[in-house]
Automatic annotation (TrEMBL):
Residues 1-17 form the signal peptide. InterPro entries: SOD-like_Cu/Zn_dom_sf (IPR036423), SOD_Cu_Zn_dom (IPR001424). This is Superoxide dismutase family protein. Residues 81-204 form the Superoxide dismutase copper/zinc binding domain. Belongs to the Cu-Zn superoxide dismutase family. Pfam families: Sod_Cu. The lineage of its organism: Bacteria, Bacillati, Actinomycetota, Actinomycetes, Pseudonocardiales. It comes from Saccharopolyspora oryzae. The keyword Signal applies. Keywords: Signal.
Amino acid sequence: MLQQRTRLLGSIFGACAAVALVAGCGGGQPTPPPAGQPTQEHPPTHGQTAAAKQASATFGPYKPDAKAVTYDPALVPDGAQINLTSQRSGGQTKITVDLKGLVPNREYGAHVHTKPCGPTGEDAGPHFQEKADPVKPSVDPAFANPKNEVWLDFHTDAQGNASTSADGNWSFDTRQDAKSFVIHSSHTHTEPGKAGTAGDRLACLNASF
């Protein structure tokens, strides 16, 4: 009887050892995926913060390779400086602009425009709009507003410096019609018939958003 039990146990252990060579006996761990492959326990994350896009330049006369152009040196002098940062995070974009060397204690308008800077301020095209106004020029507050467009109006301090920022869910990452930052001569109007207008185009910065 003892011999039969011994042979039976030996058969069980032998079978388990054979199976273990293939899949492991008693619920062994599964083979891990190749390095770099996601697992169910660690799925890919979404909505991560993207690398910031930055444009820094000094304003001067237009030339084909200029990053920043002034069209009115009396209000945006040659040598004035600008630094623009665009940061995408969680479906939102925050744009921050720092300026130095402008006219002290003065208000300016500013927006993101659809085209690169050119020899004249008009070359930058109209304002970027998340939802495009079918009527041009766009002066309807339903379209020309700081949520559908990007408004970055600012007021300089006693040294001619200023900082401004705006954030929204603009779809820059899927669009190709946000190419520049334009400084205007006055704060942006909001009333019907003038909404979105801000006077003359004084200067332009080529930038990515």
